Amino acid sequence: MQDVYISGVGMSKFGRRKETLVDLMVESARKALEDAGREKVDAIYVGTMNPEEFASESNIASVVADRLGLVPVPATRIETASSSGAAAFDEAIYAAASGYFKSVLAIAGEKMTGVSTGRASKILAEVIAPEERKYGATMPALAAMITRKYMKEYGMKEEDYAEVAVKNHKNAALSPYAHFNKEITVEDVLKSKVIADPLRLYDCSPISDGAASMVVTSEQSEVKLKGLGQGSDHIPLTKRESFTTFKSTKIAAEKAYKMAGIGPKDISFAELHDAFTPFEIIGSEDVGLFEPGMGWIALKEGITSKNGRLPINPSGGLKARGHPVGASGLAQIVEAVWQLRGQAEDRQLDGNLKYALTQSIGGLATNNMVIILEAV
Amino acid sequence: MKGTILTYTILNVTPEGFDAPLYLCVVKTAGENILSYARDADTLKIGRKVNLEKQGEHYYARPLKFKEYFKNSFAKDE
After folding, report:
1. Is the domain defined by A5-116+208-217 classed in CATH 3.40.1350.10?
2. CB atoms near residue B7 (< 10 Å)
3. For the whole model, what pTM was predicted?
């Protein structure tokens, strides 16, 4: 496998957008191509979870390639539920690393606000096992049961993980790309409506529109792919070995660290999948940044804040940057590139940033990716 | 079928076709973990011993009383 670099990145603003999914993908792709100084690429991979039901779009890879004026390059759709953006990145990396293609464009996006919240929730719940869906189980319900178990196991309280929402809203307030630019308090979180006890509205990421894109190439540039890994798990929650960790993340992280030849202590900052606020805490433990049961304590001590020793989700995370499901995995990597290049504007982290880690969750942690980038 | 509640939630925002609230729990049994309904919030406590009773396509978790739990345990041993 040859070395692969990220030579261009781009994003649309996340939030409630009037444009179509294809418009958003094209917007972010043009920015990435411009950033890379390219007009053409050898192939396109498009990550999106469910454009058919959310946005009545199909054959999307071909449509995007045509709109970008890139026909006749190969254009392929990639889907792994809510980690589709990271999966599109992985496929682009494999394609460039093999030497078959020299430059590849990864695009990821979702347009969710065109349907009602109830309809969006139903579409999202289709990733849940049918035997659990028949009880009315939703993604927040399953996330709530994981949270409840973690709280019992490690003594975490509601006001503790509310700090994830507070931190990530504070970070997002500095971002022109974020769905939310408003800071919130722990009291705001604890006053918000209970969706699935103990998870409240402000513990849940929003329904968003948005897209992110990236050009990967074998030609050297400022940010290099250092490691990546992917792991899957059983669909039913009831078949999991643990309710306080995600095995799929642990497997993905182990593979990524092995490929990178580094360990958790080398990571400068991370973008983690906080679709529900406790998931950031669990993710920080699963990728080895903290011992089991210590993630929420690190959060409380400010270690994961923007000015902390190990910042997590400087972008605002899924919670506050927004969560257009198919886009999020790639948006995390875009933020990591901006930070490593020193181009994150008001969000820029201090210090010598060498390695960034991103973690994306597909479904209820049934198809997860961990990616490590290096500033070179 | 006897079991122990591993974790639970009360779902207030339910999908189409389900009335709120839904009392949901994962119950550890001798053979497997099973998702089940409970009839009320009082049933829901991690570690609570319950009996799973099937009605139609769904299980319902009913709290076991202390004597009932041990009586059943003895019956199983016999």
Report:
1. no
2. 26
3. 0.96
